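Annotated sample (chain length 177).
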Amino acid sequence: MTTTLDPIACLDAFAGLEVYHPPEVDALGAIVIAATAGGVARLDFIDVGRAETITTRPSEHTRACREQLDDYFQGRRQSFSLPLDPLGTDFQRQVWKALSEIPFGETRSYAQIAEGLGRKGAHRAVGAANGRNPIAIVVPCHRVIGSDGSLTGYAGGMGRKQWLLAFEAQEVPLELC
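Output written by the structure step:
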């Protein structure tokens, strides 16, 4: 049985909290940015209606993230330079660091990530860590695909993954954003 984390169930634990509405809100919904004193800890997609129920507490980290997300969606930024503070195991953090090194507009397979970590054959473990990435977009887990080039699961939903990959491939006109 798979359980899905409710992205707004544990938000009181974070020092900073904002809701970001990307320019293409119809395709993506809203994004909750949560931060600790150490940096951005979560970016979660949520429905716009649920976003309206969140009481925000902006912090320097959430404001910086909001600005960099604006730049990303306006086509002015291809990578992020934010302090990050994700909760995860050492292996998960290694995978998330490797994801952050996938260039904008490119993809990698789970097997390629595993090999890059010196863990050939650990593609399933990489997939599990990828699926638990708490910082969507900034740690670009949407750039990971199957070894055969197929789109694989995405915690934010396959429609969002498809949109993000098309956006980065410049198949989504920036004027629409």
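Annotation: The first strand starts at residue 16 and ends at 20.
Annotation: Helices lie at 25-28, 48-51, 60-73, 90-100, 110-116, 123-131, 158-168.
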